[in-house]
Amino acid sequence: MKARAKTRIIVEQNAALCPTYNREVPSLPTDGAGRTLTRVLGLDVGSRRIGVAISDLLGITAQGLATIQRQNKRTDLAALEKVIRDNGVSEIVVGLPLRMSGAEGIQAEKMRLFVEELRKRFKLPVHLWDERLTSAQANRLLRETEMSIKRRGEVVDQMAAVLILQSWMEAKGSI
Description:
This protein is α/β, with parallel strands linked by helices. The protein is built from 5 helices and 5 strands; from the N terminus they run H-E-E-E-H-E-H-E-H-H. Strand 2 (49-55) and strand 3 (62-69) form a beta hairpin. The longest helix is centred in the last third of the chain and has 24 residues, at 149-172.
């Protein structure tokens, strides 16, 4: 059976199992050994915005994607679904807002609930990653550029998502 026909059958079977996720799944690139190359999504979730970052296909670097302006759960998840589908995402890393002491507070509890929602909706592995000081580090990095204060405010969540994803990949040993 040709690879394209196999892929179509698998996509159709998966679409039947999870119709909200597997709509028009693009064919994913493979390496020389035939392994599918996929991406990891990094999220810095706040009450007003979701900073978004994506790994390259080899899992070496993280790049920022457009920040999602939060509206409601349904709209937020639909925006994330589009990013996941369009980029062939296989895993998600979400920043866990811990206190400086390392203890979890109300925000960490909210994030754990959000992560459970992601797992149920997308049927993907979702990892929590300590995000302490990523926003401060993102602000510091952006201050070093000649970017306007207004523009820095627009991309700080994206930069924080990049830092979360990059540190997760480094700790995992992807690079």
